[in-house]
Structure formats: C-alpha cells, structure tokens
Design a protein that fits this description.
Shape: globular
Distance between the termini: 56 Å
Order of helices and strands: HHHHHHHHHHHHH
Largest sheet: none
Strand content: under 5%
Helix content: 55-70%
Number of helices: 13
Length: 243
C-alpha cells in the first residue's frame, strides 16, 4: 500500500470504557453460553414438528417469523422495553405492573415455566457475577414475578446498557434459540440454520423497532397455532424439550 493509499484509511474511534463494558455485558448475558437453560426449551416447536406443521427449513422460517412478529417475540420485546423504562424512571409500581402482566400473559404452563425459570436464573447469575447498586431494589419491586424479558430489561437498565441494543440483542438470542431447537428436531444442518438466521434478520429488526414504540395496550398475539403447540406439548408422549 502506498503512502497516498494509507491516507485514505479511516481510523475507527475506540469505544469508551462505558460503551465497552455495556457491549461486553450484553454479549455475555445474551450468549447461548449464558447458563439460563434456554437450550432445554423449544417454545412449542417440538409439538409443531411432531404434528407436521414444521417439516423443513421453509416451514420453520414461516413458523418462527409468525412467532416473532405476531406472537411471543413481539410481546416479550414490549415487556422488556417497558420494564427497562420503569427502572430508569425509578417507578417501582409501573415495574411491578409490567412484571405481573408478563407473567400472566403466558398461554401455557410449560411456557410459563420457560420464561419464569430463565428470568430467575438470569437475575441470580447477574447478581452474583455483576453486583450493582439498585439491582436488589428493582428485583424486589417485581414481587417475585420475573419473566425472562422483564429480567433482561431490568438488569440492562440498572447497568446502563442502551435499551435499543438490549432489545435487538434479546430478540436475536430468542430467535437463535428457536432455530437451534428446530434444527435438532426437523433436523436441519448448520448451513440451513445460518440461512434461517439471515432470512429472519429483517423481521428481528422490524419487530425490535415496533416493540420500542409500542404501548402496553398494543400487546396481543395472533399465533393461535403456536399457543396451541405450547399447550399440547405438555401431554406429548415423547419429548426432548421442556416446552
């Protein structure tokens, strides 16, 4: 490279210490390696495969896209955003209301187990590894109702991780876990799994943007078949997953 070529290179601005810490924590908390047990849940996908609703990569993409945009994905994004903002405002009553609503809106016993157990695990791990002022108070305000998206929103707010980044990373993690479950059940290869993740990228971004702007009155699901899958998984004869 000549000297003139080198002059055209733009040197990236380094992250500040605060930005670096926020990115590091977000990548850690929403990594598949973070021990909240997400790998053991399929959110009803296991029943959808057995019932023949999901048979290949294309049908899995359609199923997950619907769950993301019109079902649990969008609703969880709204809960995360409202929990985050309540913590930032110091509004404990609003935080408790969001936490209770998130716990009550889960459509089946196994899906309730899924979100509540992951929420509790997430809080406990962060509490022990990233202790911070204000975390205990925010958790206590939830009065025991700690669904997973509420827990992620709460913790990210306490640690000053930006809301938009948290929300998009959360939805990416949720979709990645759904794809991982589907890949084991259909089954699919690693390349097909990555193609699915790439294909769902626009939906993840759009759903995150919608959830950021949504009020609690905008909550609702139009994925009856997915909700039915969660209910019927509870009596499925052979199962690999807990939901």
């Amino acid at each position: 490279m000549t000297t003139s070529d080198q002059s055209q290179v733009t040197v990236a601005e380094p992250l500040s210490a605060e930005q670096g810490a926020a990115l590091y924590r977000l990548m850690t908390w929403l990594s598949p390696a973070f021990p909240v047990g997400a790998f053991s849940y399929s959110s009803g996908i296991e029943w959808a495969v057995e019932a023949g609703d999901v048979t290949d990569a294309a049908s899995l993409r359609d199923w997950l896209g619907a769950m993301l945009e019109h079902g649990a994905g969008f609703c969880d994004g709204v809960f995360l955003a409202h929990a985050y903002r309540a913590v930032v405002r110091g509004d404990e009553a609003a935080l408790r209301d969001v936490a209770e609503l998130a716990a009550a809106m889960v459509p089946s016993a196994e899906r309730h187990l899924e979100t509540m157990s992951q929420g509790r695990a997430f809080i406990e791990i962060v509490r022990n590894a990233w202790a911070s002022d204000g975390l205990a108070r925010a958790v206590n305000a939830c009065d025991g109702a700690l669904a997973y998206p509420v827990a992620v929103g709460l913790v990210s707010a306490v640690h000053g991780v930006p809301l938009a980044a948290t929300l998009h990373a959360f939805l990416h993690a949720v979709v990645s876990n759904w794809i991982s479950a589907g890949a084991r059940l259909v089954p699919l290869g690693q390349t097909d799994s990555q193609r699915l993740l790439a294909a769902l990228e626009p939906a993840v971004i759009a759903t995150g943007d919608r959830a950021l702007k949504a009020s609690l009155d905008d909550l609702g699901s139009a994925t009856f078949r997915a909700d039915l899958a969660g209910l019927r998984h509870e009596t499925q004869y052979t199962r690999l997953f807990r939901s």
